[in-house]
Amino acid sequence: MEPFEKVFIDVVGPLPRTDNNNVYILTMQDDLTKYSIAVPMFNHEANTVAYHFVTSCVCLHGIPSMLVSDQGTEFLSRVLAEEPSDAGGILNLRHFVDKDQMNWDTFIPYAMFVFNSSEHRSTGKQPYELMYGRKINMPNSITKPPEPRYNYEDYHIELKQKLQLSHQIAKDRLMEQKQKTKEQYDQNQNPTNIHVGDRVLLKNNARKGKLSAKWLGPYEVIELKTNENVTLQKDRRRITVHKNLI
Fold first, then answer.
1. Same domain, yes or no, for 205 and 119?
2. Which of 19, 33, 165, 172 is the most buried (most CB within 10 A)?
3. pLDDT beneath 70, residues of the chain
4. Can you give the pTM of this predicted structure?
5. Which domain covers residue 136, as residue numbers?
């Protein structure tokens, strides 16, 4: 995986309308480095989102191989006129915005500076450092004398080596984080003791909307399979499902 090969995109809002007539924030985050971009927008129509995505992301970092959005496939289809390969989450900037302020859009560059210059929990590195191969210059480091540079070729080789090492460390940290998350999830799963004759509820995977029932039933357990499946019966209807759905 390379920087900006996979990008998460999302729209935050509506927020209080600013003096510049902005109501929404378009956020874009690189999956590997966690480097993030945020752009204020006066609406969230497809043409507006596409314009800011191209000018603020594609023109600077190239076209991502994969674009992921919490807004779902319909959102990405309207923006890019093509079907995306996945859907997911992205950086949420709501905690940077005071809803009572009418000039929140002017603070977005500063909020992104803080985010990209802070160590990210998943990678253990600054997003800026993973993106550019060096830590960002902060006010307390501006007064330091500059380090000598040899020549452009030496700098290019050194930068490439730093980026390769940093990207590998970031990948390893992401894998460790995913493994820890999986282990925590597995620990929280309580084994289900089911016996023939039990009356159980079945998880409603076809649920549509928050008002639909989460569980169906009750069903009677009439058979335990050897592959963690069970056969349930309600009235004259029989179904076989996995134990995790009960």
1. no
2. 33
3. 71-101, 138-152, 155-156, 162, 185-192, 209-211
4. 0.52
5. 6-187
